[in-house]
Amino acid sequence: MKNQWSGYLGFLIAVAGAAIGLGNIWKFPYMVGENGGSSFVIIYMVFVFCVGIPLMLAEMVIGRCGQHNPISSFSVISDKIQASSLYAKASWILIVTALCILSFYSVIAGFSLAYLYKSILGNFTDLGAQEIKNIWTALISSPIEMMIWNILFLFISVAVVIKGVQEGLERANRILMPILYLILVVLVLYAYSLEGFEKAVSFMFGFRVEELTSTVIIAALGHAFFSLAIGAGCLIVYGSYLPEKNKIGNSVFIISIMSILVAMMAGIAIFTVVFTYDLPPTGGPGLMFEILPVAFAKMPYGYLVGAAFFIMLIFAAWTSSISFIEVLVAVSEDKLKLSRTNSAILVGIFAFILGLGSIFSFNYLSEPIFWGRNFFYIITDLSTNILLPISSILIAVFVGHVIPEKLLLPKLSFKYIATYKIWIFLMKWVVPICIIIVMLNSMVN
């Protein structure tokens, strides 16, 4: 493929940008809050190391072997090893997953843009909890305003992808990721000075076995996929752009550690603020927009802290969204023979149209339509708890049982053969069995 990263560092930063997104900063804290705190955190980390890291490597290997988008990579590899064409057909689920995630991802990112704007204007200063809740209610009650912010976010994301791999994706990540880390470190240092810091640390890391339930385990597995960008084809595409001379073995471990650290630091910063100002940690998806602004309104220089927080949230969403768009653009260029510009615009339009379901879920279509949930909750649960695990099983089976060792080993460049043996054992048995057990348990419950 003509698209390539400029080097290993560019690849590493870009993949980190794909993995570190709203899943780490928006979803992780509210998932921790809804699932009892430390029990969720510990199980999440177990899944990251036992399931997430092996799968990340597997996705990248498919990209390196196939040198194309997810569908074509599955097809090229299948033809090369004379495997069934069903694998290539099944790989379309990765594309559906990427589009579904992008559609609601951009809506949440739109909220972040709106709240950054309001924070800069000082709209939350000296307001009480009810007044801040009214701001949130006014936003979600206005589909037009939500559409405007959603379109703005999709516009800036599509614009990056149009610029190409090195000039667009890589350059954006090189700028945005360091700023994101800097803001996060500053927020954690600030949190350390607040009264609720110790309580936040205890809430996240003080393991309480009585809170460990099947629901928590299922949620932790789904979030491990979501927070590492596994199962949506992003890592297949990014892996295909990496020059052959660069090794991928160490990168997945580094990126996973970076992702976990961001999630933990974001959780500590957020829950410290929540506990300092006696706010409920179980705020759900609205934790960032209903609960935290109440604290920002009370604290000294809260408008600055709030603005910094929402900038961080936007940057995280931005770097991940461009990875989802890139997957869909790669498929469009290959299958529809459209230019990169037209492909990116088409993806943005489709994401916006599908995202209307999520936007209307906060107002006109807020009533449950299926499974006792509205469209927004259905598409988020469908994506993270069903589509991502199914996609991951497909990847695990294809790499663990279909692609031969002679094709995998040269692409992995493991220093020790024992490392390969451990990884392939995890891919063959541990990863798919873990996913199947948790999914079956989810259906039963």
Q: What would you call the shape?
A: globular
* The CATH top-level class label: Mainly Alpha
Instruction: Kindly state the percentage of residues in helix.
Output: over 70%
State the separation between the terminal residues, measured CA to CA: 45 Å
C-alpha-based Rg, rounded? 21 Å
Q: Assign the CATH architecture.
A: Orthogonal Bundle
Helix segment tally: 19
User: H/E element string?
Assistant: HHHHHHHHHHHHHHHHHHH
Classify the beta-strand content into a percent band: under 5%
The name of the CATH topology is: Hydantoin permease
Task: Write up what this structure looks like.
The protein is mainly α and 445 residues long. The chain has one domain (8-444): Hydantoin permease (Orthogonal Bundle), CATH 1.10.4160. It is built from 19 helices and no strands. It has helices at residues 8-19, 22-34, 38-66, 70-81, 86-90, 92-121, 129-140, 143-162, 165-192, 197-205, 214-227, 234-240, 249-276, 287-298, 302-336, 340-361, 375-402, 405-412, 417-444. Helix 2 (22-34) runs antiparallel to helix 11 (214-227), helix 8 packs across helix 9 (165-192) and helix 11 packs across helix 17 (375-402). The longest helix is centred in the last third of the chain and has 35 residues, at 302-336. It is globular. It starts with 7 loop residues before the first helix and ends with a helix.
